[in-house]
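Homework help board

Subject: predicted structure for assignment chain

Our instructor gave us this sequence and asked us to write out the predicted structure in token form, then describe one feature. I got the tokens but I'm not sure how to describe them. Can anyone check?
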Amino acid sequence: MAQKAYSESFGQHFIASKDLIPGELLITENPLAKVLDEKNYNSHCGNCSKELTKKILKCSACSSIVYCCISCQRSDWKIHKLECQGFRKAKPNRPNTMLRLLSRFLYAINLNPQVCDLITDSQMADGLGSNDPKERFKRNGDLGSLVSHKEKFSSSKLESYAEMIMGLPLIVEEHHLLSASDMITLMCIFSSNSMAICSEEGTNIGVGLYPLMAIANHSCNPNACVQFKDGIAHMRVIRPIKQGEQIFISYIESLDFKENRLKALHDQYFFHCKCTWCTEQDPFDFEMDHQTQNTMDSFKTQYINGDIHSYTLETLAIDYQKSMKIFPKNHIIPFHIRKQYFDKCLQNGNWRECIQLSLDNAKCLSMTYGDYFPLISISYYYIFKCAQHFSDSKSIELAREYGLAVCRNMKITHPNSDMYEQLCNEYRMWLTDLEYAGLEQ
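My token output:
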């Protein structure tokens, strides 16, 4: 359903081989290498990346990596046994995310040389990828299909990679290492092509290298999305796509101002976005007077660039109501304030306000992205969960409506997730309890 294509203007990309509808699976891919962010080492499984909610298994040798079950620990051992000694040597320090991704990739290609047979291909620039885009196109999603953009990195960035690599012998045995030049090129490839691994709720928890997924081009208003289960990436349709149309995913958080989006894409991926949002009509642009512009600048500093966690529940409530009166409902400013206000309400058990904020969020996201954006399913999920705290008829009807809505939406946006299966079971049990309690209408 996703067919590789090439053009001078778009380079490598995917097009639809037939008419596609939301929910259809396009690509499934295992990573060449993946790691958790360092802050998640003790909260997520080192193999499947699931959040740990019960008793955990910790590596007894390095005590740095934890697992959700013995099966995951055994599955990861073929790689972790190689990095484990390095973790012990580096204590009390730990390799940062990029350095650990590189080390696990080096272990992977030594265990399975076919993973990256181009490492020793003298015809490739730096031994790691052809300079000819048409030659890269012929490769079926291996590392050689990706561009390093090494010549576009600043000298200071390349120097920082070189310094980082100097620490590799401490955690990686010498016979696993490549030349310094090749490893710097790998770091550039990782920086420009790796993907953030997200939890089912949409939170970034790690990073992985998925060469086939990386071929998909970016749009700030995508028609497909990538989600993860057990570290495996799944690309699915979220908007109808006609046969022959290009398939786009978003590389960044697109709920942001155009200047921020353009800068983020240029700084990390070295291109100027030409999607409709960036070249025609940005949905977050609207005419405003001088006073509104000042208010927006103030909120931008506070809620997008500032330390938002320091604000009280009362301040967030006032600012949110003010933003909803001044800006369009689907504007970035209310969205970012609403997110922080919701988190604070959730922490304080303010379920009524959580319901209203989730309703607002779902409506605004639908206006911007259509009905099947993954975060809409998460909003429906919270409406269903929070409404269960009340027994009045309005709340029961709300829970019934959005319990059904989230099950239907997640069938499209999260079909392989544990969250979807658990939610469907919970919704069925809730309806059964409702019937037994005599509240079913």
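Reply (TA_rk): Your tokens look well-formed. For the description, you could write something like this. Confidence is low (pLDDT under 50) at residues 118-129. That's the kind of observation they're looking for.
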